[in-house]
Amino acid sequence: QQQVKQSPQSLIVQKGGISIINCAYENTAFDYFPWYQQFPGKGPALLIAIRPDVSEKKEGRFTISFNKSAKQFSLHIMDSQPGDSATYFCAASNFNKFYFGSGTKLNVKP
Amino acid sequence: GAVVSQHPSRVICKSGTSVKIECRSLDFQATTMFWYRQFPKQSLMLMATSNEGSKATYEQGVEKDKFLINHASLTLSTLTVTSAHPEDSSFYICSATLRGLAGGPSHEQFFGPGTRLTVL
């Protein structure tokens, strides 16, 4: 059973637009929700993370929105740039074990 | 800070040989290290969790005799793929967690750059 469901699988956004990626989880014991950015041939890099006691966290152009009752969280990338083109993974964690979403390949068109 | 390195970054070997991949936390002591496998255009699949000085905990379906993990120190974990076969070809990624405020592992995982294994 997939612990974390991520959508869409791929996303094309124009430069300057907003990229939105969604994730949903089932296990209410999860208490840490990070987003990772991965470029081809590289390991994932932590982008931003949130804990369930907060509904929103913003760092620069990246914002996580968290809906605890719906068991959903999303990543918003404002003013998307071609350099943001990468694969994004959401994850959920409890007791230090991470469960990753299936990934979203983002392509930002110049 | 919190840099994790992997060596080698890329390895090609013949079927039947063994390959060792090193994962090092360069500027911190890692309470726990994780090993993942990633197939092309797919997500990360956790293979095992290793704590310094103790046996690794393998995920269901991962052969412990095939994928040997040694966590000799707080900064080094190794993954040895024994008797590698073409189906073992994959991207192997390690990650490490810092020691948390209470002395246990923190939530944040820092990933290495990955090792591309190709078995001919």
Mean pLDDT of chain A: 94
Can you summarize the main beta sheet of chain B? 7 strands, mixed
Instruction: Tell me the helix content of chain B.
Output: under 10%
Oligomer: heterodimer
Outline the low-pLDDT stretches of chain A: none
Radius of gyration based on Cα positions of chain A:
13 Å
Count the beta strands of chain B: 11
- The average pLDDT of chain B is 89
Please, could you describe this protein's structure?
The complex is a heterodimer of chains A (110) and B (120). Chain A is an all-beta fold and 110 residues long. Chain A contains no helices and eleven strands. Chain A has strands spanning 4-7, 10-14, 19-25, 33-38, 45-50, 56-59, 62-67, 72-77, 86-94, 97-100, 104-109. In chain A, strands 2, 4, 5, 9, 10 and 11 form a six-stranded mixed beta sheet that branches. A five-stranded antiparallel beta sheet of chain A has the order 1-3-8-7-6, with no helix packed on it. The model of chain A has no long low-confidence stretch (mean pLDDT 94). Chain B is an all-beta fold. Chain B is 0% helix and 57% strand. Chain B has strands at 4-7, 10-13, 19-25, 30-38, 44-51, 57-58, 67-73, 76-81, 90-99, 105-111, 115-119. In chain B, the strands form two sheets. In chain B, strands 2, 4, 5, 6, 9, 10 and 11 form a seven-stranded mixed beta sheet that branches. In chain B, strands 1-3-8-7 form a four-stranded antiparallel beta sheet, with no helix packed on it. The termini of chain B are far apart. At the A-B interface, β5 and β10 of A face β5, β9 and β10 of B.
